[in-house]
Each structure stands twice: as C-alpha cells, then as structure tokens.
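2024-03-11 09:14:02 DEBUG pipeline.ingest accepted 1 chain
2024-03-11 09:14:02 DEBUG pipeline.ingest length=88
2024-03-11 09:14:03 DEBUG pipeline.predict start
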Amino acid sequence: MIYIFVFMVCSLTMLHKEAHAAATDDWLIQLGAFHSKTLATQTWQELNAKHAAILDGLTAEYQETVDDKGENLFRLRAGRFAARDEAK
C-alpha cells in the first residue's frame, strides 16, 4: 500500500523539526509517505519538476518510520522554513 497526499500548497501538512535535531525553529512540509525511499525520491523529482516555481530553494528530506501495521514508511518532507506562516 502506498500513502500519497495530494500536493496543494494551501493544505500541506506542517511538521516541526524533530526534537533530536538542532534547537532551531525550522519547519517542514510533508508531501507524502511511501513504502520505499526510491518511490519517495521519485515523487520528489516529479513534484519538483512539475512545481519548480513553488518548490524552488527547498530541500527534500526523508524520514524513515513505522506505520501502525509495523511496515516501514518513508516520509517525504521539504523545507526548511523559518516560521510556521512561511511554511503555510
């Protein structure tokens, strides 16, 4: 199963930087969650090509996690934004 979120600037999920990272107020937007890093990477490339004007200057980040069924997921996130409003 693949989890894909519709790419809409006004409804992107904002996620705060992980607690173990540097103590800054950087923000990320989550663009999707996938069962392979390859699919997450391909999706980033496609989104970046299709929406270059919006994503220009953002860096993709991938976070591996486990879903409620115990399966690996790779979150595709982009950022970093200095403030929540900027990420919105």
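2024-03-11 09:14:41 DEBUG pipeline.report Strands lie at 3-4, 13-16, 27-34, 59-66, 72-81.
2024-03-11 09:14:41 DEBUG pipeline.predict end
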